[in-house]
Design a protein that fits this description.
Helix content is 51%, strand content 0%. The chain is mostly helical. It is rod-shaped. 13% of the residues are buried.
């Protein structure tokens, strides 16, 4: 989650060329600032990390498991002779 938080802090701040990118571990406050008078964030990096952890990662896992099950079923049917291989499909 540190990498997600760092990317959110880097890419989600209001652009100010006079400031350097925030360092990993700096957290955005609810008002959009990091509390130290530095970068101002459009959305707090901790919020982005929490959403990624609670929604994106579980959905990605569900899709990956579904794909693996589908591929396993196709491969099993191919081995059993229930389907034939067409143009590289499996």
């Amino acid at each position: 989650m540190d990498r997600v938080r760092w990317k959110a802090a880097t890419y989600g701040q209001d652009a100010d060329p006079s400031q350097s990118p925030p360092q990993p571990g700096q957290n955005g406050e609810a008002d959009g600032s990091n509390g130290g008078g530095g970068a101002r964030y459009k959305v707090a990096p901790d919020t982005i990390a929490m959403l990624y952890d609670k929604w994106v990662m579980p959905m990605t896992k569900q899709v990956q498991v579904g794909r693996l099950i589908s591929q396993t079923m196709k491969f099993t049917m191919l081995l059993c002779g229930l389907v034939t291989l067409h143009s590289g499909e499996v």
